[in-house]
Amino acid sequence: MEPLVFGGAIKVTKVPKQHHPRTVGESMTADDRMAYIRKLAKSHLLSHKDLALLTGYSRHSVSGWFTDCDSHRHRDVPARAIDLLRLRLASAEVNGTTSTGGERHVSLLSTV
């Protein structure tokens, strides 16, 4: 990159850095994050209150994730919420309890 010279002063132009996703949530599109959180909520029977507790977002924000995309209340699911849920899920799977039948029971809420 050649420096630009204006009136004797040298001005260096910066090349913008390309954004590389650092986490799984950041690598997902907004639609992918919405699909992921809906699938997770359904498979683990999680309410909006549960999701708020697990992610640290308000119940109002979580409700906004599930509203129709055309609504003014709609909010995209943040990448951070996906990353926190994935961490909680991994933690629950590692710390799952074993019943007398040897079956593992995983509770995301036990990780909070």
Looking at this protein, list some descriptive labels.
extended, 112 residues, 434 Repressor (Amino-terminal Domain), mainly alpha
Descriptive overview:
There is one protein chain. The chain has 112 residues and is mainly alpha-helical. The chain has a domain at 23-94: 434 Repressor (Amino-terminal Domain), CATH 1.10.260. 45% of the residues lie in helices and 9% in strands. The strands form two sheets. It has a two-stranded antiparallel sheet. A two-stranded antiparallel sheet has the order 3-4. Helix 3 (48-55) crosses helix 4 (59-66). The model is unreliable at 97-106 (pLDDT under 50).
What integer value in Å does the Rg equal?
Answer: 21 Å
According to CATH, what is the topology of the domain at 23-94?
A: 434 Repressor (Amino-terminal Domain)
- Percent range of helical residues: 40-55%
Main sheet summary = 2 strands, antiparallel
Please work out how many helical segments DSSP would assign.
5
The average pLDDT is 79
Order of helices and strands: EEHHHHHEE
**Strand-residue proportion:** 5-15%
Task: Give the name of the CATH architecture of the domain at 23-94.
Answer: Orthogonal Bundle
Give the tally of β-strands: 4
The strand line-up of the biggest sheet is 1-2
Low-confidence stretches: 97-106
Shape assignment: extended
- Give the distance, in angstroms, between the N- and C-terminal Cα atoms: 50 Å
Structural class call reads mainly alpha
